[in-house]
Amino acid sequence: FAPKILQGMSLLLTAGPTREAIDPVRYISNHSSGKMGFAIAKAAAEMGAKVTIVAGPVNLDTPLNVNRVNVKSTQEMLDAVMEQVHHSDIFIGCAAVCDYRVADIANDKIKKSAEEMALALVRNPDILATVSAHKQRPFTVGFAAETQDVEHYAKDKLKRKKLDMIAANDVSDPALGFNSDDNALKVYWANGQFELPATDKLTLARQLLTLIAKQMKPA
Ligand code: C5P
């Protein structure tokens, strides 16, 4: 049983990795499983929210009552998010977005020849910062994966990307974070913070959404 604390709200979130093509058969990506984002989508739908998940390539089933948009590249993820952002009350950037894309995607498979080759990359847009700069901005939540000085870097990201809240996880612990079923989060907002100790990602998702609901409707 989940209390319907998000009834009448719409939540938009990103999840999983993005994938940047090099040529028709190769790409650059990362090890994000999408599990945290999908757990948030499931928990939010159970709490009564209307949920849209913009998902990179992941091997996960769509949770019940969740609208899913599949994308590959960072630009495609940004385009899908900006299409939905106007009618969203909450945005959570949970995706592990590729910060760079290949400058010129080859039309044909690249043949091996020289001993060394260089791949030119260009910066991708920041989806989270684009959402938080939008005039009809939803309550905007970011994730931060850090290996050191978690609090310092998370608080810096909160300010720099003009977020309402940031959930940081220490990815230096191999038992938690990427790919694992468990995680632990340190959550920061402008004038507060809360620690969510290690547990399964669905429990953590419910706790995070409860914190978000409280911050949106201060008592
Ligand atoms: O700056 P950094 O990439 O560590 O910030 C992580 C947060 O920003 C995550 O919420 C991630 O989903 C989001 N992000 C994004 N677009 C990018 C890079 C990161 O939305 N291009």
TrEMBL record:
Residues annotated as binding CTP: G93, C94, A95, D99, K109, P125, D126, I127, L128, F143, K157, K161
Residue segments, region Phosphopantothenate--cysteine ligase: 11-219
DNA/pantothenate metabolism flavoprotein C-terminal domain segment(s): 6-214
Cofactor(s) the record lists: Mg(2+); FMN
Cofactor: record remark: Binds 1 FMN per subunit.
The entry's keywords: Decarboxylase, Flavoprotein, FMN, Ligase, Lyase, Magnesium, Metal-binding, Multifunctional enzyme
Keyword Zinc: no
Pathway: Cofactor biosynthesis; coenzyme A biosynthesis; CoA from (R)-pantothenate: step 3/5; Cofactor biosynthesis; coenzyme A biosynthesis; CoA from (R)-pantothenate: step 2/5
Catalytic activity: (R)-4'-phosphopantothenate + L-cysteine + CTP = N-[(R)-4-phosphopantothenoyl]-L-cysteine + CMP + diphosphate + H(+); N-[(R)-4-phosphopantothenoyl]-L-cysteine + H(+) = (R)-4'-phosphopantetheine + CO2
EC annotation from Swiss-Prot or TrEMBL: 4.1.1.36, 6.3.2.5
Keyword Magnesium: yes
Family recorded in the similarity comment: In the C-terminal section; belongs to the PPC synthetase family.
Function comment: Catalyzes two steps in the biosynthesis of coenzyme A. In the first step cysteine is conjugated to 4'-phosphopantothenate to form 4-phosphopantothenoylcysteine, in the latter compound is decarboxylated to form 4'-phosphopantotheine. Catalyzes two sequential steps in the biosynthesis of coenzyme A. In the first step cysteine is conjugated to 4'-phosphopantothenate to form 4-phosphopantothenoylcysteine. In the second step the latter compound is decarboxylated to form 4'-phosphopantotheine.
Protein name (database record): Coenzyme A biosynthesis bifunctional protein CoaBC
UniProt organism field: Shewanella colwelliana (Alteromonas colwelliana)
Entire protein: shown range: 180 to 398 of 398
